[in-house]
Amino acid sequence: MTGSPTSDDDIIIRVRGLRNQFDSQVVHDNLDLDIRRGEIIGIVGGSGTGKSVLLRSIIGLQTPADGTIEVLGYDARNLSEADAKELRRSWGVLFQNGALFTSLTVAENVQVPLREYYAMDERLLDELAAFKIALVGLPREAGEKYPSDLSGGMKKRAGLARALALDPKILFLDEPTAGLDPIGAAAIDDLVRRLRDTLGLTVFLITHDLDTLHSICDRIAVLAEKRVIAVAPMEELLEFQHPWVQEYFKGPRGRAAMQTQLDAGA
Amino acid sequence: MTELHGADIAVEENDDVSRIQISGPLTVAEAGEAYARLEGVRAGKSRRLILDLAGVSAMDTTGAWLLHRFMREWRKAGSDVALDQASSEFTALIQQAESHDSGCPDHPRQPSLIIRELAALGAATVRVADRFGLLLAFFGLVLARFGRQIVHPRRIRWVALSNQMERIGLNALPIIGLMSFLIGLVLVQQGAFQLRKFGAEVFVVDLVSISTLRELGVLLTAIMVAGRSGSAFTAQIGTMRLTEEVDAMRTIGVDPVDTLVLPRMIALILLMPLLVFYASMIALIGAVLFAWASLDIPVDTFLARMRSTVTMNDFLVGMIKAPVFGMIIAVAGCFEGMQVSGDAASVGERTTISVVESIFMVIVLDAFFAVFFSAIGI
Question: How confident is the prediction for chain B on average, in pLDDT?
Fold first, then answer.
């Protein structure tokens, strides 16, 4: 496992002093996070530590109470309409349950972003949709199906295909492997890493999957106590003295995943 | 995108070799244009194709797909294809595209219009028959459970029942009252306008009181309740089906018919007569007031006239229909809710169906009642 291939100055997402609260319940307080170009960063944290809220703040679905968020050099909280459009074209988001449009087939779902931004021949659109569907490991017939005909894992992959439609620079994944069988989960891991390697994608990955964390994440950010308490590669994090971190990575599941990783490396 | 320059594509042919030089970025932003240009180059023109990628500054999966499909067409036409000066990343991307080519998405040939229409008609017929069978089965199940609860009243979910009664009955009083008042008023106004031509204005009392007590009170209340509560039943139960709450109840051993359907049905059976009585009285009050204010028919004349024409039977004919309609609305609403499956759109669809279905059945049944009552001379 090597660190980020880019220099430390190459920050693609910069979060400073982020504060999020719902009524009196404070989720984030003075949260800082830097994400480097071309890295796969895993976000971990216990339930209710605001992993999804952090994601939603960065992509503009949640207005923070305070703080600055900079994505690709844009101030994500004060965007002109044109900049917002440009920014949205540069990222792909996979929501937890896929968030597919129910009235469209999977292929049409994948074509939605392409149609929104570019003028393309129908035949090319069909081919690109089929390509992206194959890329995420769905069978060819899945393209003509409606989301309600798909299983949870298939919906997730279809959502990933849609997130990849525009060949984004940043990929936001909210628990991409949850609910997938281990083979499917490993395939998703492999795909994410391959896309990063070939396209230089930056991947923001919320996950509880210890195998994913071990095998593809360059760095891992730990959310606790309303902020990011640590950002580091896995090896350093294992040495990090915090009860939750120790429990998380060195509990029975953490050890099993680590062993798998060691065996694979040997 | 205004800064689009597109990929430059230069074609160079000598002897049996086509050399295509591509330069500039080849990403999703340029894909539409690049596709059109590459389509302009006829595949298989030469025996050998060389794609020179030396000038390509950037490529993503969309660009790789474009090159892959171009090479695929040439190969299909029998040419040798080679990449020249492709970086290892670009080669990897193109290989990735190649290994995920599942063939062109095919659109199956449509059968002719007549066949399609016939098939749709057949499918609709089967569906209607199917649904009718399902509805009957559901009705039977509900009746059986209803019987069991009457024998064992301890099984009745009292909290759910009173909760439903508040929502269906109490909360509906203002809107049903307003509707009935206006209907009574309009009936008198329209009736009097016609009867005045014959100098028989006072017969408007017969018209209003008999039609309200026998038909209008119960029909309008049923329609209002179907729209207000029947639709809510479908939406509530349907949403619970989507979130697997109904399945969870089953696995825990809580019967959904006992807990979801029966409280709603019992509440409607009990409340419909009360609501109909209330609606009829308010309609008559509206009629009396309008007759007095605008037609100069004094209240005591109105009441005396009513007493001499309206019989107890007129009142009972209306009231006896009320619980039956209530039951129909509840069963249709809950049945459609239970039929929800798949996605959120299904809830909306089923809600519409449930309202249309229950109003339709209420009106059909009302016609049967009318025939029946006239046959036995009431």
Answer: 89
